[in-house]
């Protein structure tokens, strides 16, 4: 298993609120309305379950496959759910890069502040493998930190993102050192941008991509 998020799972939410207030949660849920009607949703690197709990309320009849490498994160995520909701959600502790999806297909996939744990090459491989399991027209919800292209916001973002990588490399052992070109990987896999929002002068991005309707 790669990233050791077990050690930060309990404090993750508090660190996030201290550093960014409610911005990351706003980015997580910015496009959840696009999942309306999805019957099966794959959530990779879910974390402590704040997004999952919100989604479970919005999609009361859907099945969800929730994958995370951290047992502690999965435990926290499951605790946020009612007993009834837990029965329609499959929790799997696994390295998403080596995940065996069997013959499963999905109506949507969600990666929130997750692909930044990897290199661009790793993201490209993961996106290629997962997008092949999505039904035509399926949305891919994405959120992550970003470096704005120019101006003072760019330099501010570089300092903040650099600090985040220093902290998470130290505390969790992730090997990534910089943001991967995740959205380019999604586009290379044939998905198209279907909506985007920026927060904090472009430091945080939320986007929804879509698999072509006839892929
Ligand atoms: C930065 S946290 C983001 C959590 C959450 N999605 C959020 O929005 O805050 C990254 C999450 O991805 C998980 N993770 C890291 N590497 C992973 C891997 N190779 N396979 C599956 N999960 C992984 C971690 O355990 C952690 O829960």
> What is the CATH homologous superfamily assignment?
Vaccinia Virus protein VP39
Task: Count up the helices.
Answer: 8
Q: Report the radius of gyration as a whole number of Å.
A: 16 Å
Shape: globular
User: What structural class do helix, strand and pairing data support?
Assistant: alpha/beta
- Report the sheet-strand fraction: 15-25%
The overall average pLDDT, rounded, is 95
The CATH architecture term is 3-Layer(aba) Sandwich
N-to-C order of helices and strands: HHEHEHHEEHEHHEE
Low-confidence stretches: none
Q: What's the number of domains?
A: 1
Q: What does the model show?
A:
The chain has 215 residues and is α/β, with parallel strands linked by helices. Helices cover 37% and strands 20% of the residues. The chain has a seven-stranded mixed beta sheet with strand order 3-2-1-4-5-7-6. Strand 6 (192-199) and strand 7 form a beta hairpin. 37% of the residues are buried. The structure holds S-adenosylmethionine. S-adenosylmethionine (SAM) binds next to strand 2.
């Amino acid at each position: 298993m790669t990233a050791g998020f077990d050690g930060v799972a309990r404090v993750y939410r508090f660190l996030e609120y201290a550093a960014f207030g409610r911005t990351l949660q706003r980015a997580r849920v910015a496009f959840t309305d696009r999942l309306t009607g999805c019957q099966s949703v794959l959530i990779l690197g879910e974390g402590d379950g704040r997004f999952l709990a919100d989604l479970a309320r919005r999609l009361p009849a859907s099945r969800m496959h929730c994958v995370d490498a951290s047992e502690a994160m999965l435990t926290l995520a499951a605790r946020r759910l009612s007993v009834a909701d837990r029965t329609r959600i499959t929790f799997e502790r696994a390295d998403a890069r080596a995940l065996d999806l069997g013959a499963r297909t999905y109506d949507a996939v969600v990666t929130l502040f997750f692909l930044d744990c990897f290199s661009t090459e790793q993201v490209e491989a993961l996106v290629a493998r997962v997008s092949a399991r999505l039904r035509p027209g399926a949305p891919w919800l994405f959120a992550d930190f970003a470096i704005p292209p120019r101006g003072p916001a760019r330099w501010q973002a570089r300092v903040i993102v650099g600090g985040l990588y220093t902290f998470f490399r130290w505390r969790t052992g992730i090997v990534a050192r910089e943001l991967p070109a995740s959205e380019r990987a999604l586009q290379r896999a044939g998905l198209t941008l279907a909506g985007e929002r920026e927060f904090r002068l472009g430091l945080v991005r939320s986007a929804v991509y879509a698999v072509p309707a006839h892929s």
